[in-house]
Amino acid sequence: MYFQYGETEINYLKRKDKRLASVIDAIGHIERKLDDNLFAAVVRHIVGQQISSKAQATVWARLETRLKDVTPFAVHAASAQELQGLGMSLRKAEYIKDFADKIVSVVSGGCLKNVNNECKDYRKFYHEIYRV
Fold first, then answer.
1. Three-state helix/strand/coil letters over 57-107
2. How far lies 60's CA from each of 23, 52, 76, 78, 130, in Å?
3. Phi and psi torsions of 127, nearest 5°
4. Does pTM top 0.70 for this prediction?
5. CA–CA distances in Å: residue 85 to residues 41, 64, 81, 114
6. How many CA atoms within 13 Å lie on the side-chain side of 110?
7. Nearest CA to 47 among 28, 66, 33, 27?
8. How far, in Å, CA of 12 to CA of 27, rounded?
9. Torsion angle (degrees, nearest 10) of CA 72, 99, 70, 73
10. Half-sphere exposure of 55 (CA within 13 A, CB side)
11. What is the pLDDT of residues 17-46, one digit of tens each?
12. Which tens digit of pLDDT belongs to each residue from 78-126?
């Protein structure tokens, strides 16, 4: 699966930034592969924040080896300390764990609590996520 865009989007960007327009003309169309596992994509970006691409690839490989499939349920089953042991900071491990725990809670019939500690209906979960 690739990120889809066409002439409308390209022309918009070119109108907004002349230097970008020259780069677009020089490079041409770019096929940007998308990850169809949105949870794993978010986790991969958290892992990769403020570290080199090579370090991210190393930590990600360890995470995939440990979990087999990077899903909310697999992360939920691991501890933050286990995730940290794969090479990420404890803070990142806690963020990833919290994200997975909230999804598992919603899917398991629980509720998603907002910043006011109010229980939200799981159908509203997607609206909360997309606002972030």
1. HHHHHHHHHHHCCCCHHHHHHCCHHHHHCCCCCHHHHHHHHHHHHHHHHHH
2. 31, 12, 17, 15, 24
3. -65, -40
4. no
5. 20, 13, 6, 29
6. 10
7. 66
8. 17
9. -20
10. 11
11. 999 999 999 999 999 888 878 899 999 999
12. 999 999 999 999 999 999 999 999 888 877 766 666 667 676 665 555 5
- Determine the Cα–Cα distance for residues 68 and 112; give it in Å rounded to an integer: 26
Rounded CA-CA distance 71/122 in Å is: 18
Other CB atoms within a 10 A radius of the CB of residue 9 amount to 10
Dihedral, CA of residue 84, residue 85, residue 87 and residue 89, to nearest 10: 20
